[in-house]
Each structure stands twice: as structure tokens, then as C-alpha cells.
Model the fold of this input.
Amino acid sequence: MKFKANDYSRGEIIKFMREWTELTQEEFADRIGKSKPSVQDYELGKTNYGIDVLMKIAKEFDVTITIEKRK
Done:
């Protein structure tokens, strides 16, 4: 599956990844080394996450995250 992150908010991206893995917020948080409240805040857009969170997701779920410069 491939999706263009520019079409989604930061929170929607985390929620999309979590739902794709079919995990609860608590399970997803445990897998990426974060707390459930952190994942909740990411999904609601209350807290921004850094590249470190994306890298943990990529490693934990064996996915590729590509960052491209806009033209």
C-alpha cells in the first residue's frame, strides 16, 4: 500500500498507520515505545511528532517511509 502523506494531516497519518496495523492505541504505543496518551495526542493533532517517531514506526512494522522535496 502506498499513500501520499501530503494529502493528510500529521494526526491522520499516525491514525492511518495504527489502523493499518490493526492495533489499539495502547498496543501501537507499546510497539513504538511511546505512551497511549502520546499516541492519542498525535492522532488528535495536539502534539507534533518528530522523525524519530516515524523511524520507529518504519523499523517496527517493516515499512518504508520516503521523504521527497516538493517541486
Remarks:
- The chain has a mean pLDDT of 91.
